[in-house]
Design goal:
Radius of gyration: 31 Å
Largest sheet: none
Number of strands: 0
Structural class: mainly alpha
Oligomer: single chain
Mean pLDDT: 80
Low-confidence stretches: none
Strand content: under 5%
Amino acid sequence: MAQKKGSENPLESTEVLAAVIAGGVAGLMLAVLLIVFLVYRMRKKDQGSYMLGRPAAQPYQRTSDQEIYA
């Protein structure tokens, strides 16, 4: 096994620095993707929730109290 010096800073290693940068970029991309998805869902939820036509005179009709057996 190869031994490394104990006083060496792990951030000075090229591999560790590349992994930290790649992780930060991936995390940032995921955060942006999540925000875009949430904005899309909020806009989609807002569409189609308005009544454009005239309201029905009696939107609810009460059913008869008589039970029908099939």
